[in-house]
Structures are given as C-alpha cells and as structure tokens.
From TrEMBL:
The chain crosses the membrane at residues 37-56, 72-90, 110-128, 148-168, 180-200, 248-266. The gene is efeU. It is a multi-pass membrane protein. Its main location: membrane. Belongs to the oxidase-dependent Fe transporter (OFeT) (TC 9.A.10.1) family. It comes from Paractinoplanes rhizophilus. This is Iron uptake transporter permease EfeU. It comes from the Bacteria. NCBIfam families: EfeU. It is found in: Membrane. Keywords: Membrane, Transmembrane, Transmembrane helix. The keyword Transmembrane helix applies.
Amino acid sequence: MLATYLIGLREGLEATLVVSILIAFLVKSERTDKLKLVWIGVAAAVAVSVLFGWLLNYTETTLLQDFKQQELFEAITSIAAVCFVTWMIFWMRRAARGIAGELRNKLQDALAVGSLAVGFMAFLAVVREGLETSLIFYAAVRGANLDGGPLFALLGGVATAIAIGYLMYATAVRINLTVFFKWTGVLLILVAAGIFKYGVHSLQEATILPGGNEIAYHAASWLDPSTWYATLLAGMFNITAEPTVLEVVAWFAYAVPVLVLFLWPVRKPAPAPTPAAQS
C-alpha cells in the first residue's frame, strides 16, 4: 500500500502541477471561457487511463489462460513499468525548472489554433501521467493479496497530490518541489528495482530465464513474512526471504547505477560571457 500511495502521490502531483499551470495561464490571460475545455481534456485522460488499467487486468485474467503466457505478460508489463519510471524521474529532474514556461508557450499556440486544441493539449498533458500510473500500479501489485488496499492507497496518493496542488495554487503555500521530487525519486527507484526483480522472477517462472531453483539466501528466520517490517520491505521494494540468485543480481544491477546517476550533481551551464569579458 505504501508503494502504491507513493506512485499515486508522485504521478498525481506531476499531473496536478501541469493542470494548475494551464489554469493559471488561462485565468491571467482572461481566457476563463476555455477552462471547461481543460477539464474535459482532464476527464478524458482519466477515463483512458482507467480503461488502460482495466485492459491490462482483463488481458491477464481472461485472455491469457496458460500459466507461462500469464507469467510472460507480467514480466513484459513489469519491465515496461520500470522503463517508464526511470524515464519519468530523469525527465522531471531535467525539465522541472522550465516546465511552466514550456507549457505556457504550448497553450498559447493551442489558443491560436482553436478551442479543440486547448482540450487536446490538456488531455495529452494528463494522459501520459495516467497511463504511466496504470502501468506502474499494475506492475507493482503483481503477486500481492488484492483486498482493495493497494487501489485505495493509490487513490489516496492522488487525492493528496490534488490537495497539495490546490493549496499551492489557491494560497501562499510553497513546497520545495526540488527536494520533494528528489526524495520521491529515490524511493521510486527502489520500488522500480523491486518491480524489475519481479519481472525477472516471472521470466524464470515462464522458463525463459534459468535459475528458478537457485536460491540466493534463506532469511526467513529474521525476515519472517508475518512481521510488519518484512511486509513493508516486500510491499515497497520486493525484498523477500528466499529470492533467487538472478533476482538479487537484477535488483542491485538496476538500483545501484540508477541511484548513482540520479543523485549525481547536475552541472549548470556556464553563463554566457559579457561583451566586456570577451574584449
């Protein structure tokens, strides 16, 4: 539940920030008549995202009856989710500072094109986050005991993100988004490492990768699945008591280099020299 709450919070806040920038620009430009088009685009994006999540579940549970096919499908969706998470956190780190200006320019161009372009732009801005959320959520809850908790946690994360976005838009509340995205990015990398580990496990179950019976370690004595901390580690980062050797290798092979690259300081471009300095 903590993992899916984090996914909802992170993805939800990105979508909320995008929508709030679009709304603020329309209000300041005295084009409030176009706000309904933004909301129509947002609603359509949410509907497509929910449909995509349902389609993923329907494909596995109904269309795929063979065990190996189901495991292969889970592996493909898990690895795809890891790719989306990795791309998303690095993109946000690079584009966070200039995203407001970029969105305003695109919206200005959309207003010049016509009303439908405004709604379509809002749709594109939100549907990307929605599709990512559906895929990552689906991959994160594979193998979990689904009693509705993970879904409620995801919705809770989205609701928290909307509340934060509203407070930032309507009041003087300010949040250090650089710090927020940095540390949620670190946690999401660890979550993605667990999803990648699960993808490798599914490939072993489908007999595509070898080593399904080669257990790396037996830690049930101190990582008892019935304890709260074992449940937390398994639910957040997929750290389990008896993983295979290849699963452990996959977890560290993803987590270590990606964390290093993500936390590596970004060099700021040197300012252009002034005419006096050039002379």
